[in-house]
Amino acid sequence: MILVLRQGITKEEKERLKETLRSEDYLVKEIKGVEETILGVVGKIRRDIGYYEALPGVAKAIPISSPYKLVSREFHPTPSIIKVGDVAIGGDRLVVIAGPCGVEDRQRTLDIARTVRKSGAVLFRGGAFKPRTSPYSFQGLGEEGLRILREVREETGLGIVTEMTSISQADLMMKYVDLIQIGARNMQNFELLKCAGRIGKPVLLKRGLSATIEEWLMSAEYILSEGNDQVILCERGIRTFEPYTRNTLDLTAVPIVKKLTHLPIIVDPSHATGLRDKVSPMARAAIAAGADGLIIEVHTEPDKALSDGPQSLYPGQFEQLMRDLYVIGPVVGKQLDYTYLDKARMIRRSSEPGRAPVQAAFAGLPGSFSHKACLQFFGEDVPLQTCSSFREVFDLVDPELATFGILPLENSLTGSFHENYALLLDYDLKIVGEVTLRIKHNLIGHENTTLEGIQRIYSHPQVFRQCKEFLEAHPNWDRIACQDTVTCVSRVKENNDSAEAAISGDEAARLYRMVVLKEGIEMNPRNFTRFVVISKQGDLPGPKNKTSLIYSVSDRPGSLFETLRVFADHGINLVKLESRPIHDRPWEYLFYVDVDLDLSAKQNHCLLEELRAKTEYFKYLGSYQKGGAGMPEAKKGASRTY
Fold this sequence. Notes:
It is built from 21 helices and 29 strands.
């Protein structure tokens, strides 16, 4: 049952209500939303629903209809984010877990760990206990294998994922493991599930070979009912009549589970297919279906693997898969971040006593695209500061009241955000990173709003331009500009007028419990916005492969060409060249330039000096990793697609 609390309930009233419910042997969990606070109440409901609605502080009581209570979306409407050390599963970043099926020996395990860490994996899988069909097959190294996994964590920083097969292993799991895996064969080993719940560590629960989705979620309910809500679901294929693959990967489970439960879901294409050449295609399909991550088997010598060699990727195949996922991620609203662990380490150091905590500022409100860019770049652990304008972001970062700021710089449909380019010129700040978001605009209104009844539409001026074709089909709508896309949804909500609607992202609709009347109304689905991260002197980990500059040249023939020839003569790829007028000097222009090179590197200082010598005004904006998440450079000789 869900109890929606009345607006303005005091802390004391809330605590008295909880005590009343607990005295009747109910498990009570508080969930705070943007507009409402609810109490999830689990246990046998002994009274009429009217009794609970009459309790002091309760606005409404809603029964939960599904057989699983704690797991259901009814109980917990917002998606859960599960933390495994520094890694957050279920947020805006794709999480990839990789490693061998089983831990075989120390050196090989460390070699595999270094390889997958370099390619972007953030957790390491490896079985120390292996439940096998045959009693004569390799059963794992036991505690020796766990010691090797601990060494992997110490050297690489990767959190450890391994399978628990018996209640007797509980102490070992507490001692060595970061994420406990419950395998497919043990999905309905209820005593093991309850034990995993009592341990309190995050649990990865794999779907059973022949389990229905409801049975799978009921198994998760066992873990949550023991007080552990840190559960990640894993679809790994089910047994069907089809013999061509090891199992049949049920990708329909991903969107179904997303609708039924708040728990994150990842996919295991290795066990699902059992065939190396099928793993990458199904991994890409899983992300397209909406999975929060993947668990992939990787081995440096699969032919010599003691278990599951035929389904293990070679390191080169895994690297290519990660590059593919890097491209797919933004299309489904996520990022694959290659510097995830390094950023987390930097943030943790900055939060130590005696140091000012890292803070990132953005213009807008929670739920805006700038907020989403912040979350995708920095994760959930960085304190965020909302600002009313782009200039306010600069005004916080310049005196280092915030370590970083994030702001949009250009959109693929409507071009540059000229205000922010002007601010980059005015302030002595550096670009230290970037992130690209796919921008999907939705028409949002009240449940009883129809297209025919709309008279006024709210959004940001840039959004109106990006949705030009859709709006031209409705010329009678009055367009009202707002500071950001979340504010416009909030205003429509407050006005409570079915003749009004807003254009914003689906996150704003979810936050304010509004209805998406029409999805994807932008002019082109390939609508991306590039956000940059600015800082006074802070830097970010990882290699740099892009530089931004501003300069002007003298008013004589060939002066611009001379600067461009510097790039051409040194084989430097010029990815952006844009001219902007100098405000106090009519008909004179500044050039904004992006190049695929780290011009801050010592070996490239001569190039900077050569450019300075050919310009009248020159400003170095910064060198950073392109793409925001920082995709490693392709190996020499490898093909690259842009």
